[in-house]
Design a protein that fits this description.
Oligomer: single chain
Helix content: 55-70%
Structural class: alpha/beta
Radius of gyration: 28 Å
Order of helices and strands: HHHHHHEHHEHEHHEHEHEHHHHHHH
Strand order of the largest sheet: 1-3-4-5-2-6
Strand content: 5-15%
Distance between the termini: 77 Å
Shape: elongated
Largest sheet: 6 strands, mixed
Length: 402
């Protein structure tokens, strides 16, 4: 405990010495040897870690001690938690310490991490469940001291799952922005060395660096480095890599934030799931979310954006956010190059259409006509729905509305 006090600049050494001596006085004679050995091992481990200068690892060991002695020695636990609360915050080397560069692969000299400084153009469009979970994470970080008083720590590991382009990386960017921390992204191309043994070292370099840096670390495409170990097609070295990764996640400091993302959750080793405190599944966008994204993308360039957003909600049904953004931006570029009104370009996009059911096409035809954008004849040409069918459904809509 003296090393802890020295390391964090804590001045209450006399109380710590007293608490240490009280531990020994309370141990029953029959258990004295085993307890002394246990405490000695803890002390040696703490001393070894403190001498490395890795503050967050020391904090992790102290936090484990608070759990171990919470019931038997509440006074010791209280002092340890006070040390954690009073310990200085290490400034990220990314901001002020140029002498701590990003780790690189020893062979290729490629950086193993990529710093993402890009700001999202707009707030991510998330489901209520995902938004609530991320807000909870932010709330925990703002109230860390309150949690620690009860022997709790804020969430430090999150797993995002879902198909490509549904907002996983965007959510990680948003969370890093709200936490006021840089986002570091694992570069798989650099990490996966041609020498398999070096891949494991690269992973350690990356995780050790992130542990000692105030950042949000994103392990994108987690399935590439955390595949099931019962897969007979994988060689032993890659299986050992999974074991290394599991150990590193277990030892992740509570002051850090680790986010992993995968497009193929079925490929993950079963043990990986238990290592993450929060698991969030990102689905493809709903009709309402598509409307919102279209509004965000073209709101300032298109009249009647509310109507067009509803129309494109039909056309883009089932697509991911990234695919929708790609198609909308292509339409905007075509409009700029050909000097066509954006409405005409989008109308051509609608006429090409997506694979909609007959009922959906009918609803789209009614929406096109009711919006005043096109005539019944044009709605028929775009959707392939007969004008008589369109008229009948317009009547149904009017009866329901009345």
């Amino acid at each position: 405990m003296l090393i802890c006090g020295m390391y964090f600049g804590h001045r209450k050494m006399s109380s710590e010495i007293y608490l240490n001596s009280s531990i020994y006085r309370s141990i029953e004679p029959t258990n004295m040897n085993s307890k002394v050995n246990e405490l000695s091992n803890d002390f040696i481990q703490l001393a070894r870690t403190a001498l490395t200068g890795r503050q967050q690892d020391v904090q992790l060991l102290i936090h484990r001690a608070t759990k171990k002695f919470k019931s038997s020695h509440p006074e010791l636990t209280e002092s340890l938690m006070a040390l954690l609360q009073e310990s200085p915050t290490r400034t990220t080397p990314l901001r002020k310490h140029a002498e701590a560069p990003l780790p690189v692969d020893l062979d290729s000299r490629l950086q193993l991490l990529r710093l993402d400084n890009g700001l999202p153009e707009h707030e991510p469009i998330l489901t209520e469940k995902i938004q609530a979970s991320l807000n909870q994470v932010l709330s925990e970080r703002k109230n860390t001291k309150s949690l620690m008083k009860h022997g709790l720590t804020p969430t430090k590991t999150i797993l995002f799952t879902g198909p490509p382009g549904v907002g996983k990386t965007m959510a990680a960017k948003w969370l890093a922005l709200k936490l006021g921390r840089p986002l570091l992204i694992l570069d798989l191309a650099a990490v996966m060395s041609s020498f398999l043994g070096r891949t494991g070292n690269n992973i350690r370099f990356v995780l050790d660096y992130a542990k000692n840096t105030e950042c949000v670390l994103l392990l994108d495409e987690l399935d590439a480095i955390a595949k099931r170990r019962d897969d007979n097609t994988e060689i032993g070295e890659l299986k050992r890599l999974v074991t290394v990764l599991l150990q590193e996640i277990d030892d992740w400091p509570s002051s850090g934030m680790l986010i992993a993302a995968t497009n193929h959750p079925a490929l993950l080793d079963p043990a990986i799931w238990r290592r993450f405190e929060i698991v969030l599944d990102f689905p493809n966008p709903t009709y309402q979310q598509i409307e919102q994204q279209v509004t965000n993308l073209v709101g300032s360039n298109l009249e009647n954006v509310a109507v067009w957003s509803k129309i494109l909600g039909f056309v883009f049904a089932g697509l991911s956010f990234s695919e929708i953004e790609r198609q909308v931006n292509l339409a905007r570029k075509l409009s700029a190059i050909d000097e066509q009104p954006l409405e005409e370009v989008i109308m051509n996009l609608v006429s090409k259409g997506a694979e909609l059911s007959k009922d959906q096409k009918t609803e789209l035809a009614v929406l096109l006509y009711d919006s005043g954008i096109v005539s019944q004849r044009r709605a028929q040409e775009i959707t392939g729905i007969a004008r008589e069918t369109i008229r009948k459904n317009i009547s149904k809509v009017k009866k329901i509305s009345n």
